[in-house]
Amino acid sequence: MSTGFFGDIAKIQYEGPNSDNPLAFKHYNPDEVVMGKPLKEHLRFAIAYWHSLAWEGGDPFGGRTFDRPWYDGGMEKAKLKADVAFELFTLLGAPFYCFHDVDVRPEGDSFSENTKNLNEIVDYFAGKQEETGMQLLWGTANLFTNRRFMSGAATNPDPDVFAFSAATIKTCMDATHKLGGQNYVLWGGREGYETLLNTDMGKELDQMARMLHMVVEYKHKIGFKGQILVEPKPQEPTKHQYDYDVATVYGFLQKHGLEKEVKVNIEQGHAILAGHTFEHELALARELGVLGSIDMNRNDYQSGWDTDQFPNNVPEMALAYYQVLLAGGFTGGGTNFDAKLRRQSIDPADLLHGHIGGMDCCARGLKAAAKMVEDGALQKPLDERYAGWEDATAKKMLSGEMSLEDIAAMVEKENINPAPKSGRQEYLENIVNKYV
Prior knowledge:
The chain is an alpha/beta fold. Helices cover 46% and strands 11% of the residues. Helix 10 (278-288) packs parallel to helix 11 (314-326). The model has no long low-confidence stretch (mean pLDDT 97). This is Xylose isomerase.
């Protein structure tokens, strides 16, 4: 049933690259089979409730620019927002969505009221999911917006805030489980510090570890089969966040014995803020066995902060999905559009344009990545570069059969004097450009 918010716009269809219709997919054909399965199963698109429905278009120097009929209200407005949300999901044909608790429920005066409001909306969502076939990719708790979290949630110096946070996470895990969510995400927006002058870093890291252990314990207690994911980000809003990047998160997980229980949800914009590429973070997570899911967006590279724009760089997406495919593709994870409109894009149709462009970009990237995998375009040169390590002596050096003294004696005896070999970076970049 139409809410009227999007007017008479019909469901977005695939019309191919020659179409001039701005409300049609040019490259994302959900049923197109790539490497043995449809694009919709490869990409597993999800729409972010917070940016698409809850964000008001403000910035540090100006307030609301969007005029949405569900703003400034209680439960009835929250249900109207849900109606429009599921209409948006359906128009786009995206199979999944994601939400924080505060995105979907009215804020109450107490934890009990928040829980009551969330449970009412969860029941409403359950009906919408049954009606539309939509699924929940992941749920999470917003433990950063309210002023009670200004000094962190799990890492807060006040144990009452830790307790409130733990209770809120429980209710959000319950909601995610009830809705059949495939993942539960923890993003510690305030889990860090502004200054070390008032921070006991060791104590805060121990608190964060205890919270994550409780999350894992509760997952098993309630029989939640989905992945627990941590989302890395280096800074902003805090000066320094403890979940800085994939390497930092993995070191934390390993120290606390959680590396087999928790994976990462990697965001393109956060990777850039950490001084990495998206491709780097995905490759490292793949190598460490902790690649869970991705948030897809981009930053304005001149702004230097997290601008959360819709993706439009196909070569970047191709290299990102190349790493996803090498990891075996998504299982419980997917591609969540953690992207928001620009504050001047105020029309309802702009929500569709942003997602259509992003979905087309991802589809082009995935198809290019799949062709590179199938052709061995990058793997063959990589194998050639490391071919020397297949030699029996080389294997002995790595296996521990040869000591430092043994290797030194071999180098002297055989007069080993290696000549440098080209890394052929430009050649490899040209290969990628051939596919994108």
